[in-house]
Every structure is written in structure tokens, then in C-alpha cells.
């Protein structure tokens, strides 16, 4: 005998090659029983197996990759393609091997009896400890059944029923055991007792009916169904009864059962199931009659409701669902006029707020079987209703107004009627923002802009468009805020109407009431396109008076004069710009000034400008640009002198800051080192490119790059660890380190002397006090 421990009840098999009476057969080695191995292995209760299954499931779950979403940027096919077969092979190779339970080989009947006795004792201890646990009883009974001990198995099931008869699992496994062993009458008795004690458990009734039907005992199955239906089970149970009668082609019986179903469960799902049954069997007229009966019994409309009654939202959904199903039924049988009448009836009797799906179905129906005008009317009316509802909730929802207006404008091409859209614009602009703040007025102002463009472009009514612009400007509170876009569009509108004087008046009015750089730029662009140079100069002067620190305005003014050939006037403008005490971007105006002089090959002026700039700032980029300019005019000696001056300044600056701050500000020192490094790198490149260069001298000054670490401090003061950075150690800087140490030592000596003096004074005071 060989017994294999698995998660299912133990199976007992006899080896046909084993002959216990043979003397030549070598006795195989007997494996130790569980009680002979370890104490914790003596019991094979159910929870041991469950615990093993849970551990294996957890292990498998750990190896499953986490679901992450990746955005694929490159969607081109990969160069190496992987087939599904390769993926399966790799997955099979990496599959985790589950540990196998040990096998026991039993040699004779005595060992078998001992084993069975031990297992029964284990099961008895388990069921005595867990009396209300159905799984423990089921495992016990299944094990007895596997040992072909049917009477014992029945005894265990009966004991289990005495303890927990309310568990459907026990009854099902009990009946399955009897059916498996072909004890049909026993199985009938078990299932009959089960459905008597637990009549509300549908699974027991289904198993009972299934057994009788498998035995071809259809009358018995029908009797069981009739007993079941007396308890008024769920709708699905009635459908199972109908399906059984359908399998035996009892159509009349099916109709009788469905009529009983409508009485027990008068729900819309039951009516629709009945109609589908008749459609499936070709009874179209009968299905239509069922729909009409359903409308009379289920649907409640405002027209047939009692006075004072309110129709619930659930009732509206029932009405909508039934009418849609009725219309689809007529549509499937090509009764399009009937379907259209049903849709119209539904739209007239169901409130629009509860008929969104109905509108979708009607739209789809008209798209398939209706004309273009009908489709557009349906879509437009539905959208209008939605927009009106949204605007009733919030009249300042300007995005909804835009969508609503766009819908009405789309119909103008067909009707050429503007009054509807104009009225909608008037309704929209009448809803002022609740607060006088610019962020609330931004979307509102675009309604006016869209209205004015509509009158000018679509309606071809410039007088009305002019009125819209003027009304918009009157409503805006210019004392608190203004919109440059409205002023600019109004002026450009007058330009398009060839009213240049009006356009200038609008620009001047805007500059008086709400001056801004946008208005100045739009006014300047208009005058430049018209060729009014004098007016443009006056505007630039007004703009510079408005904001003298705007480098872009100075630059554009100077370039305008340069384009007109007034070089001296342009130079004077640049001079005025660089002399201003406050500029938003001074480096831009200085660069444009230098480029201007370079363009006209005024090299002496360029050198003077660089020297003036170096008096204002000693930035390393200015030194490098100055030197590269000397290189461009082939003045190599002057370029080398500039590099030398810059390197000397940066080195002395580093020394001064180090002595003043005693190396406390490491970031400033690092920036100075980096600037000097960039300067030397450009100098070395310069020496390598020019003829008769001296790159060796510059190379000796190049620093050594050293990787160091520095602490990272968060804004709240907490430490974030360390980061690596590249530091530069210059040869001349290393020579000055001993001097710094002497100064630092001198400072420490002075501090110690001060401390001794302080201690002496404190001691003297203490003695005097005593």
C-alpha cells in the first residue's frame, strides 16, 4: 500500500507488483510515520495544510512584479524581437519549485490499521475542538470515503449535520459523496432533507434538480421545481425553471411559468425577459402585446398620475428603460415609424433631466434611419437643454456661454438669421462677474471680444461692432484694472475701417486712462507701418518717460534711428541709456551699444566702452569678451594684457576675500575659483589659436581639479548628507597657505590672551567679593 499526502483527501492504492508472500523480494525500507519524526508533525489537521497553502501563495505573490505605468516615448519596433514562445520558456525556467510533501509507504495491513487509527484520532480531536467548523467535518468524512468506509463517512456527515445543519457545504458534499458512489436513493434522501431544512438556499435546490435531470427523471425534476417555486425564490430561479422546460421544448409550460413570474416579481427585468422569450420564438405580435401590458402596469407618467403625486427618479428610469426597449424592438423588426412614435412619446412624457440616455438612443436612431435636418434638430435641442440647465445653476459659467454661443453660430450658415445669436450674446454679457477683480473678469471680457468679432466678421455690421467695443470699455472699471487687449483691438478695428484719426484717439485715450507697455508697442507698430517717423519718435519718448528702466525700449529706439541712417542720434540714445542709474537688464544695453560700435568699425570707441564697463563691473565674461574683441582685430598683445589684468584681478580678489572672511564663506571662494578657471581656459585657448602663442605659461597657471565633498543643508536646517563637487587648486594659491596659517595662528594667540585676561579679571572680582 502507498499513501501520498496531498491537499485533497488521502488516496489509498495497492501496488500490483508487490507480493507479500514472495521470499525473493527485498523488503523495502519503511519510512517513519509522522509521529516518529517530530512532535509538531504528529497532527495533520486542516489548518496545517491551509497554513502551507497560504505560505506558498504569499511566496508566489512576492515574486509577482508590481504593476507600474510607463509612458512609452519611443514607439518604434525594437531591433531584437522576443516571441511569445521565448517568454513562456523563460517563465517556465524561472518558475519556483514548490516543496513536495513526503510520501509514506505502508507494507502490510497492520501498518495500515495503525495509520488509520492515528488519523481517526487526529480527526476526532479536530472536530471535538472545532465543532462548528464545517470544513473540519467535511475533511473527516471525505477521508473516510477515500478509505472506502462509506458507513463511517455517513456517520461523520450525520454527526456534522447535528452540529451545523445550517451549512450548505456539508449537505452538498454529503450528496456528492452519495452520487459519486451511485447511491441514488441515499442522495435523494439527503437532498430532500436539505431543501426541507434550508428552503432559501438556491444551490441545494439546483443540485437536487440537476441530479434528477441527469437521471432523466424529468417529472421528478418538475415536481422539485414546483416545490421550489412555492417559496417565491429569486428571478434567476424562475429563469432556470424556464430553461429546463425549453430543453424539452415545452413552450406552453414556459409561458405559464413566465406569467407566474410576472405576478411574483413584477419588475421591468421580468417583463423584458418575457418579451425576449417571445421574440426568440418568433411571436412578434405576442411580444408587442407584452410591451403594451408592461406600459400599462409599470409606467407612471405625469399625465396619468394622481393629482398631487410626485414621480420618483427611480420611476423615471423605469419609464425610460421600458420605452427604449420597446423602440428597439420595433426598430429590429423594421417598424421605423412605430419606433419614431415611441421615441416622440417618451420625449414628451419624460422630463428632459431624466432622459439623457433616451436622447442618445433617439439621436442614434435618427442617424441611421432619419434625415439630416431631423438629426441636427435632435442634437441641437439636446445640447440647448443641457446648456440651459447648467446656466440655471451658475449664470457666470462663461465657458458654458461660449459653448452655447458656438452652437448657435453653427446654425447661421443654414438659416442666415443673426437675431438668435445676438440675443444670446446679450444674455451672456448681462451676467457681470461677482467681484471687481481682474482674474474674475478675464473670461467675461472675452465674451465682449467674441461679440464684437461676430458683428464685424459674420454679421457685417461695423456700427454695431463699434458700439460693442465702446460699451465694453464703459463697463470696465479702469480705476482698479484695465485690459490692454480691448483697447488694441478697438483701435485696430478702426484701422481696418480706415478711420486712422479714430484709431489714434483710441490709443491716446488708452494711454491716458490705463497706460501700459503693450498699448505703447501696438501704437508704435501701427505708426511704423504707416510710416509716421515723427509720431514714432514722440511715442518712444513718451514710452521712455513712462518706464525709463526698460532696456528693450532704449534698444528699439536706437535701432530705429540706426535704420534711418541717424548714427549720431542712435549713439546719443545709447549714451543716455547706459547713463541711467536703474536698468532692468543693463548687460543687454551695453552689449547692443558695443555691437553697434563694432558694426560701424569704431574700434577706439569699443575699447573705451569696454573700459567704462569694467569700471562698473568686473565680471569674468566682460574680461573675456574684451580680450576676444582685441583678438578679432588681431591685436594679440593687447588681448594678452587684458587676460593678464583679469587674472591678476581675480587672484587678488580671491586673496582679499579669503583674508577678510577667514574662509567662512566657502561658496564665494568657490565661485571666484570657478571664474578664474574659466578665464584661464579661454586664455589657454587664445594662446593655442594665435601665431607665436605662449600656451606653456598659461598651462602652468591652470589649476588641479580635485573631487571633494561638502555637506548639504536643507532650508529648514536639517542635514541632507554630502555631495561631491570639483574644486580647483591653483599653484600660486597653494604657496600662500603658510601665510594664512600664520595669520590664523596670530588670531588664535590673541584670542587665548584675551581669554586669560578675562579669567584674571573674573578671579580678581571674586576675591574682592569674598
| Radius of gyration of CA atoms, rounded to a whole number | 49 Å
* Mean of residue pLDDT values: 81
The description of the largest β-sheet is: 3 strands, antiparallel
Determine the structural class based on helices, strands and strand pairing. Answer: mainly alpha
| End-to-end CA span | 106 Å
**Spatial shape:** flat
What is the helical fraction, as a range of percent?
A: 55-70%
Looking across the biggest beta sheet, what order are the strands in?
A: 2-1-3
Give me the number of helical elements: 37
Instruction: Name the poorly predicted regions.
Output: 1-49, 659-664, 736-744, 763-770
Task: Count the E strands.
Answer: 5
**Strand residues, percent:** under 5%
Brief sketch in words of this structure:
Helices cover 69% and strands 4% of the residues. With 770 residues, it is mainly alpha-helical. It is flat.
List the helices and strands and how they pair.
Blueprint: E1 2-4, E2 11-13, H1 34-37, H2 46-62, H3 84-93, E3 103-105, H4 109-129, H5 134-146, H6 150-163, H7 168-180, H8 184-197, H9 202-214, H10 218-229, H11 235-247, H12 251-264, H13 268-280, H14 284-298, H15 313-332, H16 336-349, H17 356-369, H18 372-393, H19 398-410, H20 412-415, H21 419-429, H22 438-458, H23 462-475, H24 484-496, H25 500-513, H26 517-530, H27 533-546, H28 551-563, H29 567-578, H30 586-599, H31 603-616, H32 620-632, H33 636-661, H34 666-689, H35 695-701, E4 704-713, E5 719-729, H36 731-735, H37 737-769
Antiparallel strand pairs: 1-2, 1-3, 4-5
